[in-house]
């Protein structure tokens, strides 16, 4: 709400308001001011880290200005806003991204140079904001970049974890986890809003009463000790080539009551601070599981804490406009990033019914028109289910509301399908086991007006498998596909400046950064020898950069002229890093059999792995150990004359990805068909002119469609064969693929160290059921690898493929994805940023 301000006051603000001086001199002035006042240092006392801080604070000042202008414009227009609820935002570093998005990189680069620093060194001082596990969290970050760039009035809501995803070290080839204390030094990329606090209740009881109109109402009461405070920290997200700067609001937990004085006076010092510690625990740490649910009470507390604070903030903002409640869903769209925020559905219903006194049916209409839900995985172990007794204890009123939602839903189903008790059991939000469980995906579907998967195959599989019965009831209009995308700003322009520059020159402008379809224009350059040469030069310098990083982080020396073959992603059985390393052993054994003369014809390879295993995921950790054991043997075997090297890059994260991705010749996306919902790194590699070796899964399929048969290596069984193959493994004796058996024998012979360590891993194929079908795909995997080796020998042809890869990736911009969400699900319009 804009109040009247005297003209004289406005004039003063006009006169002294923070300008947007972007030239070199203003930068230097600001840099020196921040060194002197913010850092309390002097010219004699600045290292690279202080230079980073002073530069970051200068950029922060600019961001705050834009952030304010943007919020003011949104307040004036009061458009429909979208709220993106995500438990993870995997942002990585911010400085370089902000410099590029704001168009400050050149001037500031010169500015720091004259002050005696190199911008690259300064950028390298920043620690990643790693508040996410992998795909889901990084997708949220790309989507925020696109929302800002496209001027959409959007907010992200998440948690400000004190510890992000753990740091990974290797000891004797095993993963070791270290805490990620990213807030050790100040964080210039957040604006603490210590005045924005919200009380979040837990536990307590529900009282029924009859109000003055005779209606039965519920009131949820609890003790002060069970109330926690949420404090807002705002993270500005600048768009590219716009003045617009949106917000991610991250909540941090703190105790409502600082200190139990009574206990303290009784001499019970630990108990006096215990409540405080329990409150702070809520946002202490990110759960380090990717594609896997862990049913810990603290995780459920995190979810409600976040959802409750966010909804109360959203409702408060809506109420400022004094619009009637039936316009809520015309002002507010809420996107649920997986089922983690599903309690938001229940919380909004509670706010409307219990606090605002709106009738149940009317409230429920508002709720379902507001929410939409994105599913990110089909794996059964990732499906969220919470024990009813746990929900009942922490959130007694929410448990009642969930039972009511379920009752009304099942009654409606019964009217449509009388006498189909089986259908009711399948659709029910409550799993009737002992104890009962709340099925969060069912609740999310029932409470949303739209449900989407993240790639075409995945969305089809959802409709055909886990959500089949819901499609039968609702019809399939409620279920659709929004294929994921990635931001070309970070994943090409920022990570690969050399290629970005070449593309801009070839296309005659930077417009492709806002309209990725323009990359099609590169096709007409494919046949130009000179252009291809420059393309290869850019790739080569990226490989040199990665080789240097590998030397620094592992001590291993690799040859940049070798074929760089990369698989970097979370370590998971379904992603089959195991199959990759088994293939490496097969290759090694073949190389050993060759004569020196024969080896001269071999394309040398560097096989690069990276990725974290969830700390409790024993088999995934063994995969890391096996990779390192195999690497040890191969890298120290001079007899194969450097035709093969194996590298495990430790602590894979966003900023390491920015070095690895532009340097790959081929990358592997080899999940068992039907298991990888989309994948997004596949898009990043291809956009950077890297070819991919992939299974017919997730977004690989759509990438294949866009770039054509000649520019991709696909192999393996299809999704619709998986059930039968698994059945066969379970009930018949399927002989293991002979090439695979030979590799297994080699491991078991002790060639890569004490094989007893690896027995549980090997058992997943031999004594288990080979659930991820490594044996079934192994031969076609080796065949596809052979084709890769052959193709790489023809450098000119390979380069053409590489160019055509980038040229055809327009579809996979997160701008396209966000535009689809905005138009087809959220029904929101851009609010162009005002110049000021
Ligand atoms: C998919 N995380 C990728 C990416 O859509 C896809 C689940 C439960 C608990 C904690 N984390 C999760 C995921 O399910 C996840 O990251 N899914 C990933 O989402 C973006 O590209 O294929 O595996």
Automatic annotation (TrEMBL):
Enzyme class (EC, first level): transferase
UniProt key word Glycosyltransferase: yes
EC code: 2.4.1.1
CDD domains: GT35_Glycogen_Phosphorylase (cd04300)
Catalytic activity: [(1->4)-alpha-D-glucosyl](n) + phosphate = [(1->4)-alpha-D-glucosyl](n-1) + alpha-D-glucose 1-phosphate
Domain of life: Eukaryota
GO molecular function: glycogen phosphorylase activity; pyridoxal phosphate binding
GO cellular component: cytoplasm
Pfam families: Phosphorylase
GO biological-process terms attached to the record: glycogen catabolic process
Cofactor section: pyridoxal 5'-phosphate
Post-translational modification N6-(pyridoxal phosphate)lysine, affected residues: 684
Keywords in alphabetical order: Allosteric enzyme, Carbohydrate metabolism, Glycosyltransferase, Pyridoxal phosphate, Transferase
Family recorded in the similarity comment: Belongs to the glycogen phosphorylase family.
Protein function: Allosteric enzyme that catalyzes the rate-limiting step in glycogen catabolism, the phosphorolytic cleavage of glycogen to produce glucose-1-phosphate, and plays a central role in maintaining cellular and organismal glucose homeostasis.
Name listed for the protein in its UniProt record: Alpha-1,4 glucan phosphorylase
Species this chain originates from: Glomus cerebriforme
